[in-house]
Amino acid sequence: MQEATLADLRADLARQRHDELYRGRGERFQWIVLEQSEPVGWITLAVTSWEHGLAEVGYALTTAAQGRGLLAAAMQLLLADLFLATPLERIEARCAVGNVASQRVLDKLGFTREGRLRRYFQLDGERVDNFLYALLRDDFLPRPR
Fold first, then answer.
1. Is residue 41, in this structure, part of any structural domain at all?
2. Which residue range is the domain that position 94 belongs to?
3. Of 3, 15, 19, 37, which residue is most buried, by most CB within 10 angstroms?
4. Residue 86, Cβ neighbours under 10 Å: how many?
């Protein structure tokens, strides 16, 4: 697998049409997580069905940026934007069973662990189980009284 350079990522981001996201179109969107104007990670949103309002989010941070709440803060902003400005109703996330830090991020954001996906993907040459998490619009946004 070839690693992407920062220039590659920026070029890819420049080609994206985020306005399509807010029109309920498009399939894949990415954001770079910055700390003091320096890239420290990324967030990807893959829309699996606009008709049903379904999407999946993935993310990563550099090792140096982990453990300081940066990802949770960035995700909180993005989730608010997605649920307020798009027709998405359900956002899923998956993480390896052994990735406790990622589980903490999802728990902090209000995602619900819905199940275990056995041998879901390959990590370091080994098939690993993943937890499936989901966040619904109604879980995130307060309901009118």
1. yes
2. 6-140
3. 19
4. 18
